[in-house]
Amino acid sequence: MRSHVIKAVFWRNLASYFSGVIGYLFIVVFVVACAAAAFSPRFFTNNLATLDQLSEYFPLLLLFIVPAVTMTSWAEEKRQGTDELLFTLPANDFDVLIGKYLAVLAVYSIALAFSGFNLVVLDWYAEPDWGLLLTTYLGYWLAGAALLAAGMFASVLTNSVTVAFVLGVVIGAIPIFVGKLSVAHQIFAALSLPEQMKEYSLGLVPLTSVVYFASL
Question: pTM score > 0.85 for this model?
Fold first, then answer.
């Protein structure tokens, strides 16, 4: 791997994402949606300083924020014809791919960091278990990082940003909703992304789920 090529691709794509209003808009919508899910009326009814309500809806939030982040990663390059320029650089495909992936991962990490305002609110009004909250957010980050790869795959299939978004939702829906097939066979539940996230909400970091996310 050539680190200077990865850095160049990374900074180029990161700057491109924040060059317009749309990138900021998606982050704002994501943060607001996280807050709405975390502090729903059920949160006040349960009277527990946890993010259980957010964890319940987080896979659905990922289903839309991930394609929003990744839809331009390849589709926009193909539409403008700059993908051919990328592949003429003195770098292999893997370097370009890693640079792009790290860029979308950075965007997602920034959005997730801003949603960390939920933790500030919990700390202000209660005395939460910080170990539990940190493992919960680790689960959010790993799940998002895994789906980003699926979103990039969707983006490389087309030169239309809109189609890339729709394909990203469709492909991302497979690991999110595959657990619904558990009535047919229990193995589908184990392959479900929400199922793999559950233990993080309990303060655990299971090795099996880390392998699952890395494999995905």
Answer: yes
